[in-house]
Write a structure and sequence with these properties.
The complex is a heterodimer of chains A (561) and B (225). With 561 residues, chain A is an alpha/beta fold. Chain A has helices at residues 7-11, 24-36, 55-65, 70-76, 80-87, 105-114, 131-151, 190-208, 211-227, 235-265, 270-285, 317-324, 344-360, 379-397, 401-406, 423-438, 446-454, 456-482, 511-526, 528-531; strands spanning 16-19, 43-47, 88-92, 117-120, 156-160, 171-173, 291-296, 298-300, 330-332, 341-343, 366-369, 413-415, 485-487. Chain A folds into 3 domains: 1-184 and 267-297 and 340-373 and 488-504, Rossmann fold; 187-265, no CATH class; 319-338 and 378-483 and 510-535, no CATH class. Chain B has a single domain (7-221), classed as Rossmann fold (3-Layer(aba) Sandwich), CATH 3.40.50.1000. Classes of the chains: A alpha/beta (561), B alpha/beta (225). The A-B interface holds A 381, 384-385, 387-388, 391-392, 395, 409, 411, 413, 512, 516 and B 31, 33-34, 75, 77-78, 80-81, 85, 147.
């Protein structure tokens, strides 16, 4: 056990560079530190400019509209602009570029001189994205962050990774890093792997630029236009459709290649594969005294900060919980397997503690932040809690009588993948009904046949939903059925914290309260509307936020303790 | 007039609430996880009902144990959520105003009002928010093992033995003289409790208790149809 860390003292006057501030984690961390450590030095937020929109504008909009900053707006009111501007400097850059994409040499030199801690939250969190994008953001981004830290006078790097970089493993997974080994135990060289990935990407690109591919895309486009009753002689329409088809084919090929490579080494998906390579690059580039890997498990709605239930749109649990609130009731999973959820504010507290330990030189190489080790939540319990939460909502606030009476009492359950009511069987059944509706018995009266034909649009909708659910189940199966992941999370607890607001011990989580009163209501407010193509509630502070120029807002001169 | 070191023991079911343990067990059973499971559990409650009817006149502890077997194997999450739902949506509306008036009067007399309930903790805790004029609420506790209900009620089962050792221990712990205490019962098994105190009273009594109350010349209060 180390000596207790005072977060206030550890961060007072320290300068931090934060990447990924527009993401879920980065935003909550920033708001939390500004709220509880107002004496922090300068926080440099690295933000990309987008099209004609400067980085500062993008950041300003985040602070102005994200409910995550609500407690700060409420605390500082009209003084919010001054308070934030004094503590934050927006740096226009891009983590996927060398020198973090900071183009101004003076700014770069200042950052290299002043920064104490770099927190790299930037990352692509889709499970199976285009391999090129995953490599650029997750691998190149981490590599650039490591190079940047190496060029700094005193900076250390807290890299935000994921517990699942350990790949397909079963049992208790220790807090260690083995950059030279793949999850299935094969020798793994990140440099060689990156080079091979690049070769694969180039080969796929070359193949997609071939005349055969052009012809295939053209033929598919013509067929698609014809099927939709469009004008197949419209050259522009054919060209645009062919371009879109080609783009999709290319993306599919990139995803397939990424999945193949990830599976070959024993990773669950492209996300964990590229995040593992990111860790390997950092461990190779920097001295052990200058980095720590911070690995959260599945980051979900906040328990208390900025307010109970806050989450930023799509996340891991969202689609699953949403589907279990629809007519889909039988989730394939392995009963007893951990479902390692951790609220975002616990993760941010853990990051802050790990960052403090890193700046003090008392850090561990890896900090895993999850709940499966100390406060186990099994997948079957999670499913039951989702069902109970939906029940509670539907009974009193269901939109229709069907919702209030039937749906609320029809609970989602955890089943084995070979259950008779599995989604595959439901699809087959729906397909049969769809087929029958399209061609009812010939002898039936015409009006009845027409009525039945009208029902086809419902079966088509159902098949579309079933398709989405099938894909979702496939994506989640490695985590809820195929593997038993239990992550050891003891390193964080080796740093006792003086201030109670930074306590990140997952044993304090009451899962029932969290799922029923916090998480699912939070998802219902911030995430589910997105599935229904609705816009979640936005936030408008009473006093508009404007970032002032650095000259108007000098850095706070807090004493370094 | 204020009396010190005196208590009034009041049975909840029948005096304060119109519903009993079987209704709660049936609610839990009817809202089990799966449809098949619901049918089986409701069947168990159905089997327990006549036993409860027969034994409930003499030994409520055994009857309660049988009724609660229907929730064996249900998760603690489900039991506690459903119990809270039952307390809020069903039981709260069955609180008898005359019962609350009785409690108010007892408290005004300076007695420590102790409510004795056959129901289990997850039901009574949320319901307690809607009860008033009492000092202590004693209820049954159900056993949970590894997050699942075993269906077993933990001893002492509040039902028949409150007139025995439990009452002696309670009186000793709070320095009560039982001869100066009052008790309000509604069912046959409450006779043991009523016979131990100085001021017994039968409230809305069932057949067995009414007959005994008449024999023993205990006052009888009726306010339920």
């Amino acid at each position: 056990m180390n000596t207790p860390i005072s977060i206030k003292h550890s961060y007072a006057g320290r300068h931090v560079l934060l990447t990924g501030v527009t993401g879920f984690l980065g935003k909550v961390w920033l708001a939390m530190v500004l709220q509880y450590v107002p004496d922090v030095g300068k926080i440099y937020v690295l933000t990309r400019k987008k099209a004609l929109r400067p980085a500062a504008d993008r950041f300003e909009r985040q602070v102005q509209t994200s409910p995550c900053f609500r407690p700060l707006h409420e605390k500082y009111g009209a003084d919010m602009s001054r308070f934030i501007s004094e503590r934050i400097e927006v740096v226009s850059g891009d983590v996927s570029q060398p020198d973090m994409g900071v183009e101004d040499p003076a700014v770069l030199a200042r950052l290299r001189r002043d920064i104490d801690l770099v927190i790299n939250c930037a990352g692509l969190v889709d499970f199976d994205p285009d391999l090129r994008e995953a490599m650029t953001t997750n691998v190149e981004g981490a590599r650039n962050a490591a190079n940047f830290v190496a060029a700094c006078d005193k900076a250390v790097l807290l890299h935000i990774s994921t517990c699942y970089v350990t790949g397909k493993k079963n049992g208790l997974i220790p807090e260690v890093i083995r950059p030279d080994l793949s999850p299935d135990g094969q020798p793994f060289d990140v440099e060689v792997e990156c080079a091979e990935v690049q070769v694969s990407i180039d080969a796929i690109l070359a193949e997609h630029e071939s005349p055969e591919m052009d012809k295939r895309a053209h033929d598919d486009a013509v067929k698609q236009i014809r099927d939709k009753g469009g004008d197949e002689n419209n050259a522009m329409l054919v060209r645009n459709t062919a371009r879109r088809i080609k783009r999709n084919l290319l993306k599919d090929a990139m995803v397939a290649e990424g999945q193949r490579r990830a599976g070959r080494w024993g990773f669950t998906n492209i996300y964990t594969y590229t995040k593992n390579m990111a860790e390997a690059w950092i461990a190779r580039r920097l001295d052990p005294g200058r980095w720590s890997m911070f690995r959260p498990a599945i980051v979900e709605s906040s328990m208390s900060y900025p307010f109970p239930g806050w989450n930023q749109g799509f996340n891991t649990c969202g689609p699953l919980s949403y589907a279990l609130g629809s007519w889909f009731r039988h989730l394939p999973c392995k009963q007893g397997n951990p479902f390692d959820i951790i609220p975002v504010d616990y993760v941010c507290r853990g990051m802050t503690v790990a960052g403090a330990a890193l700046m003090r030189g008392e850090h561990a190489p890896v900090y895993q932040c999850g709940s499966s080790d100390l406060n186990l939540l099994t997948i079957d319990r999670a499913v039951e809690l989702v069902a109970l939460a939906h029940r509670k909502h539907l009974r009193t606030r269901g939109d229709t009588t069907l919702d209030r009476v039937v749906k609320s009492r029809w609970d989602a359950i955890a089943v084995t993948p070979d259950h008779p009511m599995r989604i595959e069987n439901i699809r087959k059944m729906t397909e049969s009904v769809d087929e029958w509706l399209r061609d009812p018995p010939k002898g039936w009266p015409e009006f009845l046949r027409r009525r039945l034909g009208d029902l086809v649009e419902h079966t088509e909708d159902a098949l579309e939903s079933i398709d989405k659910i099938e894909r979702m189940c496939e994506l989640y199966l490695p985590f809820i059925h195929d593997n038993y992941f239990a992550f050891v999370t003891r390193n964080l607890l080796r740093h006792p914290v003086v201030e109670p607001e930074w306590d990140c011990d997952p044993r304090s989580i009451d899962w029932r309260h969290y799922w029923i009163d916090v998480h699912i209501p939070g998802l219902r407010k911030w995430c589910f509307p997105l599935f229904e193509n609705k816009t979640p509630e936005s936030y408008a502070p009473r006093h508009p936020f404007r970032l002032r120029s650095p000259e108007a807002a000098p850095a706070p001169h807090a004493e370094v303790v | 007039m204020t009396q010190t070191n005196t208590a009034a023991f009041v049975r909840v079911e029948g005096i304060l609430l119109a519903r009993g343990v079987l209704s709660a067990a049936a609610y839990l059973a009817a809202n089990a996880k799966k449809f098949g499971e619901r049918a089986v559990r409701l069947g168990l409650v159905g089997l327990a009902a006549p036993v409860h009817r027969l034994l409930g006149q003499t030994d409520r502890a055994l009857a309660h144990r049988l009724a609660h077997l229907a929730i064996r194997g249900m998760s603690q999450d489900r039991v506690e959520v459903l119990c809270e739902e039952y307390a809020e949506d069903v039981l709260k509306d069955t609180i008898l105003d005359q019962g609350l008036e009785l409690l108010k009067r007892l408290q005004a007399e300076g007695r420590r009002v102790v409510l004795l309930s056959d129901s289990i903790e997850p039901i009574m805790k949320p319901l307690a928010r809607h009860l008033k004029h009492y000092d202590e609420l004693v209820y049954n506790k159900i056993e949970f093992e590894d997050g699942e209900a075993t269906g077993k009620l933990l001893d002492p089962v509040i039902g028949s033995n409150v007139g025995g050792r439990w009452l002696d221990d309670y009186a000793a712990a709070h320095d009560f003289e039982l001869s100066r205490c009052a008790a309000y019962g509604a069912h046959g098994p409450d006779m043991l409790l009523l016979s131990r105190v100085g001021k017994p009273c039968a409230v809305n009594p069932d057949f067995v208790l009414r007959r005994s109350a008449k024999d023993a010349d205990w006052p009888i209060i009726d306010y339920r149809d």
